[in-house]
Amino acid sequence: LLTMIKRQKIYVARCLMVRNSKTTLIKYINFLVDNIFIKVGKHIFRQNIGIPMGTDCAPFLANLYLYALEFDYLEKTTKKDIFLARKFTNSFRYIDDLLSFNNFRLIERCKHKIYPKELVLNCENASQDLCTFLDIHMHIVDNCIHTKLYDKRNDFKFTINNYPNLSGNIHAKRTHDIIISQFSRSNKVCKYSEDFITTSKTLIQKLLTQCFNRKTLKERFSMFYTKYYHMLEKYNCSKKYFITRLFN
To answer: Alpha helix locations (H) across 35-145?
Structure first.
């Protein structure tokens, strides 16, 4: 009997803790959303519809909100029609970007059941077999997905300086190391060597105009090829071939 009473007390205490933490969390989120102010010049504004983008909490709250809507819909659909729910297996979302393979018509039919009418879904793919998602350009050719790197900043008619300019007081040696991460990024996305070379060569030319050293960049690529050869072997190209194409 004493053991049962102890277990009951522990259960009640845990329930109170969960209830308190849930109430406290909701209270904090409401306060956070209601007290985000933006100052423009001498004027102060408070956004009363939606969440101001650019704030620290915005991506997490947006992701949580959309996840809750999707989870609720799929949970109800699974109980009614498991085969319909399984058709969303190849649908993916990153914050507010949605990607769905071979499921466009179903998404169009069900989007109003998943998301509220205030949330407008715009179809941005160029065609049924060509689209961009985040920083990936995807093209379906012969039932295979060809991928390469995509940067929306390249679509602008003006130049964007998105890397350090070494004409200032910046540590040159450490700054040159950023190209290794960019090589890795291109390699993971680009399926073919030509796309990898084109993307990397454009990056190198841009860095050279911002006072980067050609010899150091070449050394960095050599280090990248040696250390991450297991990533580059899919291209079946030698180090000499890459260096010639990239730095010629």
So the answer is: 58-80, 82-86, 104-114
